[in-house]
Amino acid sequence: MIRYLYEDELKTAPLLKETMFLDCVDQFKTRLGWDVMLEDNGYERDEYDSHNPLYVIYQKADGTQGGSMRLLPSTGRTMVNEHFSEILGSGDVRSPFIWEFTRFCLARNTEPRTAAALMLAGGEVMENFGVKHFLVCLMCASIT
Q1: How many domains, in total, are found in the chain?
Q2: Is the separation of the CB atoms in 20 and 5 below 8 Å?
Q3: What are phi and psi of 69, to 5 degrees?
Q4: 73's torsion region: left (phi>0), alpha (psi -120 to 50) or beta?
Q5: What distances in angstroms separate CA 109 from CA 5, 30, 138, one per listed residue?
Q6: What are the tens digits of pLDDT across the range 8-33?
Q7: By the 8 A CB rule, do 99 and 134 touch?
Q8: What are the pLDDT digits (tens) for 65-106?
Q9: What is the pTM of this model?
Q10: What is the domain-level CATH number for residue 63?
Q11: Residues forming a β-bridge with 55
Q12: What is the C-alpha to C-alpha distance for residues 17 and 20, in angstroms, rounded to an integer?
């Protein structure tokens, strides 16, 4: 099942929240070897998680996450504008119709259809929020 939760709504699904952030540790720190900061609770979160992003989460039958991605409108702070502006010709992308897509994460034990379900859910976000384009930060959305 696909869940759409803003950061401030994650408290309504504690197991889903916990497994999402711990799977991010497994993917980004353990498997990819990225130098990511961990919170005291062991979660992998960065400064953009505090800007109330929309998380699109594939929830498995047992209530844990099978995969997730983080979406932020480009009208606010984004990784692309703040860390990768050189690929934009030193400019910014700011539009209510362009959202950033980062932190694509798949749990090690997820079902084969998870990535496809998340991509289809991205299309639903586009349709329901009037999004015309996603900025996909490939360095922030690695798949292993």
Answers
A1: 1
A2: no
A3: -150, 155
A4: beta
A5: 22, 15, 22
A6: 999 999 999 999 999 999 999 999 88
A7: yes
A8: 999 999 999 999 988 888 777 777 767 888 999 999 989 999
A9: 0.90
A10: 3.40.630.30
A11: 5, 70
A12: 5
For the record, the structure tokens of 87 come out as: 């690929």
Question: Which residue range is the domain that position 76 belongs to?
Answer: 2-140
* Dihedral class, residue 62 (left if φ above 0, else alpha if ψ from -120 to 50, else beta): alpha
Question: Quick one: tokens of 50?
Answer: 């505090």
C-alpha closest to that of 51 among 102, 125, 3, 92: 102
Return d(Cα 6, Cα 29) in angstroms, integer: 24
Write the CA distances from 51 to 19, 76, 95, 132, 142, integer angstroms. Answer: 20, 8, 17, 21, 21
